[in-house]
Specification:
With 105 residues, this protein is mainly α. It is built from five helices and two strands. Strands 1-2 form a two-stranded antiparallel sheet.
């Protein structure tokens, strides 16, 4: 594990860059994490997906798959790939400060 400074806070991340402790996440960290993914600025649609990912994680203990994300977040799958080109569920989860969803490579 590695320590990373995001928004002035030292946080532990795993080998894939996911926060070890999702409770440390802040929206200011999301902006920095998104920049690291090549996403800048975060649009209203990005935030919709990021907040949805967090709420699903907090309610169910895991983030949604791409298919479920496209069906239930209010953002169609095609648009998800435009917003998060390197893999919507995985990248959105990393930005949202939650663990990688099951089924993501």
């Amino acid at each position: 594990m590695t320590t990373m400074t995001l928004a002035g806070i030292n946080v532990e991340v795993n080998d894939e860059g996911f926060l070890v402790d999702p409770s440390q996440w802040t929206e200011a960290m999301a902006v920095e994490l998104a920049r690291k993914e090549g996403i800048d600025p975060l649009t209203k649609e990005h935030w919709q997906v990021i907040r949805f990912m967090r709420s699903e994680y907090l309610a169910k203990g895991s983030g949604p798959s791409v298919r479920l994300l496209g069906k239930t977040s209010g953002v169609p799958i095609k648009e998800l790939y435009q917003l998060f080109p390197k893999g919507p569920a995985k990248v959105a989860a990393r930005i949202a400060g939650i663990p990688k969803p099951k089924g993501c490579i």
